[in-house]
From TrEMBL:
InterPro entries: Ccc1_fam, Ferritin-like, Ferritin-like_SF, Rr_diiron-bd_dom, UCP035918_rubreryth/DUF125. Keywords: Membrane, Transmembrane, Transmembrane helix. It is found in: Endomembrane system. The keyword ATP-binding does not apply. Residues 18-154 form the Rubrerythrin diiron-binding domain. The chain crosses the membrane at residues 274-292, 304-323. This is Rubrerythrin family protein. It is a multi-pass membrane protein. NCBIfam families: FeExpMbfA. It comes from Paragemmobacter ruber. Gene3D superfamilies: 1.20.1260.10. The keyword Transmembrane helix applies. Pfam families: Rubrerythrin, VIT1.
Length: 325
């Protein structure tokens, strides 16, 4: 027999006592998850943290009711059985993932937790013919539905329109600082700074493969440099700009993408076809940069377009003149 295959039991094989014990441990785990969410959010999103504190307290109350029921029916000793011991039972994501989740995603995860538990118990209740077990599972499904309604009540109490609006603005600002700003800087650097070496090589050699290799080297090299620079120059603690790893990743990837956009056309063997397509790509890249600046940085579109187009045109002209000379 292969080791590990006997460590998980089917839900259908659990006794009523084991089902009750599983429910108790599940309620305890969910309370811990909600408290972890609350602790993670307390500094910046106090209203949502209060919401999760209230949900954790609700889980504690339900867990106590289940323990009281177990004590009445089966005695003091509760079997040790958890979600991971039962094949097919719903699982929870590791709590540490909450550190990397945006606010709306965490709120959605909480709602999904309650819905998932309710559906599981409801399906299990429909699949049993034992009256006592069916009633027990139905009661658990109803309890989970009650959790979801209570979560809605708590949200209305703690997440007023003003509180939600303030938290959403804070979350958007954090998203811009951590992802958009570094990514935009990378895209601008990759799109503009690689114009000169790529088009200088193109006009100097009129060899598409050589131009592609130079463009790839310039794009990847710039991406690595920008990524490390962004990650190393600010740890995010004082500036509040978020994880240096995330910012470095955004900056490095977008720098490479910006350069590769007009390097890839030189995989086409015909020089003028590749060059014309590369110019079109450059035009699209520069307008995309202007749109991002307007959309997220609230820079007037015409001013943003003028800045990037003029800058890009100057760099392109420099590369063409150097290569053509």
């Amino acid at each position: 027999m292969i080791p590990g295959l006997t460590t998980r039991r089917r839900f259908a094989d659990l006794s009523e006592q084991e089902i009750l014990a599983l429910a108790i441990s599940s309620e305890e785990d969910d309370a811990r998850i909600y408290r972890s969410y609350a602790e993670r959010l307390r500094g910046e999103f106090a209203a949502t943290a209060a919401l999760f504190d209230g949900m954790a307290a609700e889980e504690d109350q339900h867990r106590q009711r289940l323990i009281d029921l177990h004590r009445t029916r089966f005695g003091e000793v509760i079997p040790l059985i958890r979600r991971e011991h039962v094949a097919g039972h719903y699982a929870r994501k590791p709590v540490w993932l909450a550190r990397n989740l945006p606010l709306d995603t965490i709120r959605g995860e909480a709602a999904a937790m309650e819905q998932e538990a309710q559906r599981f118990y409801a399906r299990a209740a429909q699949g049993t013919t034992d009256a006592a077990t069916r009633k027990l599972l139905g009661d658990l499904a109803a309890a989970e539905a009650g959790h979801e309604r209570k979560a809605t009540d708590l949200a209305e109490r703690h997440l007023t329109d003003d509180a939600r609006s303030d938290e959403d603005r804070t979350a958007r600002r954090q998203f811009i600082l951590t992802w958009v700003q570094p990514g935009l800087a990378g895209l601008m650097d990759g799109s503009v700074s690689t114009l000169a070496p790529i088009f200088a090589t193109a006009f100097a050699t009129q060899d598409t493969w050589t131009t592609f290799l130079v463009g790839t080297a310039a794009s990847v090299g710039a991406g690595i440099s920008m990524g490390f620079t962004e990650a190393a120059h600010d740890d995010g603690v004082l500036s509040g700009r978020g994880s240096p790893l995330k910012r470095g990743l955004a900056s490095g990837v977008m720098t490479t993408v910006g350069g590769m956009g007009h390097a890839l056309p030189y995989l086409i063997p015909d020089f003028w076809t590749a060059t014309i397509i590369a110019m079109v790509v450059v035009f699209v890249e520069l307008w995309a940069i202007a749109w991002i600046q307007n959309r997220f940085m609230e820079t007037p579109f015409l001013r943003a377009a003028l800045q990037v187009v003029v800058g890009g045109a100057l760099v392109f002209a420099a590369g063409a003149l150097i290569g053509g000379g």
